[in-house]
Amino acid sequence: MARSGWPHPRTDNLNALIATYVGPPRLTDHHGSTDWHLHFRGDNVSTTTQLAALLCVGTAFHLAARGIDRLGECAADGCPRIYADTSRNGRQRYCSPACGNRMAVRRYRQQDADR
Length: 115
Known about the structure:
mainly alpha; 4 strands; two-stranded antiparallel ribbon; 115 residues
């Protein structure tokens, strides 16, 4: 896997989001339950902030484990979505099977029209 140089726009953007939404990690069991887990946010924050912290940390873990280039923009015409590449070989091009299928049909129809 090719390594990207530092600084990288993706890490700069993600680090800015982490600085905004994520607090220091802490271990919690929610007052006596047996389910210990980590929180990456402070107590008594809004649901929006909780979701932002969860998404930031999850994205950071994914990119650290899989590689910074595993975050991509959908290659389908007109699709503005971004996605986390979870494919084995790191060659995912579309955000969903629907976008991939739509582009395959478009390519097929174009080949048929070119004949």
